[in-house]
Design a protein that fits this description.
Radius of gyration: 18 Å
Strand content: 15-25%
Helix content: 25-40%
Number of helices: 8
Shape: globular
Order of helices and strands: HEHEEEEHEEEHEHEEEHEHH
């Protein structure tokens, strides 16, 4: 009955069968509180914590924190926007403040690989955003980029649609769900899904101008990372603390001292 209530045939096909029409626009309007939102909870210490950042010189940082349960289900527990007008030192301080609020540092911290394209010239040479944050005590790992533009749409659909879960007594459970606190966040992740539109006709610039896409891209980078690690044979529950080459991803415990 729910699928029949979806009037847009492209969205209905994507929701039910994973069929995407490249020439059609697509939204995530099917994301809803019943299927995709859970009550706020304190994640067990043994669940891996992953931080994903989408950086923008204009819009600052969009950051999301996720935990993974032993059944390889993921939960977006917190999200935040940090303006870039205070410089890297200020942004790093705010990142550490939010980590402290969560109560732990991430096992893995990912950033959009395009952070390496944002370069600034200073007295100590040319640095990209990875360098800048590293200088302030935060090590971000470049995320896996989508092979084609609409790859983000396909993998997000795979993560957001409910799937059969025997451990839940046959309940349909999406792989990615959001804590309820994010429902009331101004211009937060759920707000973003209600507004984002993927349209192959739009230029990359027009796509980028959608402010709501930044939080959605965080989810996309998490999903692409998990898929990459799964292809390498890394167990789902431990992949969050592993690098693509099999080594551990280490995040410093605090900011570097000021020079």
């Amino acid at each position: 009955a729910y699928l029949e209530s979806i009037s847009d045939p492209a969205i209905r096909a994507a929701r039910q069968h994973g069929i995407f029409v490249d020439s059609a626009t697509l939204t995530f309007s099917y994301v809803n509180d019943r299927d995709n939102v859970v009550d706020d909870f304190d994640a067990p210490a043994g669940w891996p914590l992953v931080e994903v950042v989408y950086p923008s010189p204009k819009r600052g940082l969009h950051i999301k924190w996720y935990v993974c349960d032993p059944q390889d289900r993921w939960y977006n527990i917190y999200a935040e926007r940090i303006p870039s007008d205070g410089g890297f030192r200020r942004m790093a301080q705010q990142v550490f403040a939010h980590r402290q609020k969560i109560g732990r540092h991430p096992d893995l911290a990912l950033m959009d690989p395009r952070g390496g394209h944002h370069k600034q010239v200073g007295s100590d040479g040319i640095k990209d955003w990875f360098d800048q944050f590293r200088a302030h005590g935060i090590t971000y790992v470049p995320a896996v980029a989508p092979s084609v533009d609409n790859a983000r749409v396909q993998i997000l659909h795979d993560w957001l649609k409910p799937v059969f879960d025997p451990s839940k007594g046959g309940e349909q459970v999406p792989r990615l769900r959001f804590c309820r606190r994010l429902r009331t966040m101004k211009k937060g992740p759920l707000w973003a899904y209600e507004r984002f539109t993927w349209d192959p006709v739009l230029s990359p610039k027009k796509q980028y101008e959608q402010e709501c896409k930044d939080f959605i891209d965080c989810d996309m980078y998490l999903a692409l990372w998990v898929r990459t690690m799964t292809a390498l044979g890394t167990p789902a529950f431990t992949m969050a603390i592993a690098m693509p080459d099999g080594t551990a991803a280490v995040t410093p415990a605090g900011p570097a001292s000021d020079p």
